Amino acid sequence: MTDQLSANPPAPLTQLDIDQRVFDLYDEYCHGHMDRRSFFAQCAAIAGGLAMAQALIPNYALAQTISFTDSRIKATYVTYDSPGKMRGYLVQPTGQGPFGTVLVIHENRGLNPYIEDVARRAAAEGFLALAPDGLFPLGGYPGNDDDGRDMQSKLEQPKLRTDMLNSAKWLKAHALSNGKLGVTGFCWGGGTTNWLAATMGPDMQAGAPFYGAAAAADTVANIRAPLVLHFAENDAGINGQWPAYEAALKAAGKTYEGHTYPGTQHGFHNNSTPRYQEAPAKLAWDRTVARFNRTLK
After folding, report:
1. How many whole angstroms separate alpha carbon 133 and alpha carbon 112?
2. Torsion angles phi and psi, residue 260, rounded to 5
3. N or C, where is the chain less crowded by C-beta within 10 Å?
4. Measured distance CA(63)–CA(54) in Å, rounded
């Protein structure tokens, strides 16, 4: 006879089921401020916290929204110079081009399946997309986020950012590119999107950082790309930087729009964990695509 629990497995936890204290601990864990053991130990002290913590670990089977075999796209891995070798996931739309280009920058753990899917989403919208793997100099994304986070923390930040800059330049110069570059990124990648906007100046045509650290105040004047910036409501570390960043953008006369999405956590666009919120994630992505359509095509 079938066991009652097996026949009716419990529904997966959603954001509404998870204590904010667990989300806060997960944010600390994600950003490398505690290890996995400490994260689970501290969550276990909260009623039901261990189950909540386990639910927050990414399930990348959920991340795929665009199939590898989707007829609208063609995906491959490419290598290029930076000045050592770099590797990225290049996804092109069907057709002859040229296409507007979109660089998709990962979080602080390398090129995981969620970021690859975002690159496919961009290509399905008609853009030539490249998602570089910042961990390639250490062997590439290792297949799990814990090891990826440790690997990325060992990289020299200036070298890692240079690899992203060279990835942007390589993509913009691609034979299928129309010469217009947009950049989007998530968490660490969102901060790098802001950094690239300030570093590349007129060579970057649009930016859409998701919950990323602000560009340095003394570099904001260099930004030429219109920006659409996305923030989670519950994300004190990133949101605390926004008032000064917005003031600098305003003072320098930059084109930008900042959006904060009610009821969301840091990482709300990532559909592989319960932090994901479908409606805000879709709205933020639609706003990103609209900006890229206006600027890159």
Report:
1. 9
2. -110, 130
3. N
4. 17
Give the whole-angstrom CA distance, residue 92 versus residue 102: 10
CATH topology of domain 70-296: Rossmann fold (3.40.50)
CA angle 159, 105, 74 (to 5 degrees): 120
Reading the block at residue 129, the tokens are 């997309």
pLDDT score recorded for residue 55? 67
Residue with tokens 């639910």: 55
Please choose, from the candidates 200, 190, 246, 191, the residue with its C-alpha nearest in 3D space to the C-alpha of residue 223. 200
Residue 107's pLDDT band (cuts 50, 70, 90): very high
Q: Helices marked H in the chain — which ranges?
A: 4-7, 20-30, 36-44, 49-56, 113-124, 145-154, 157-172, 188-200, 236-239, 242-251, 278-296
- Distance from C-alpha of 127 to C-alpha of 143, rounded to nearest angstrom: 27
Domains in the chain: boundaries: 13-56, 70-296
Write out pLDDT tens, residues 13-70. 666 677 788 677 776 776 667 787 877 788 777 777 667 766 666 777 777 899 988 9
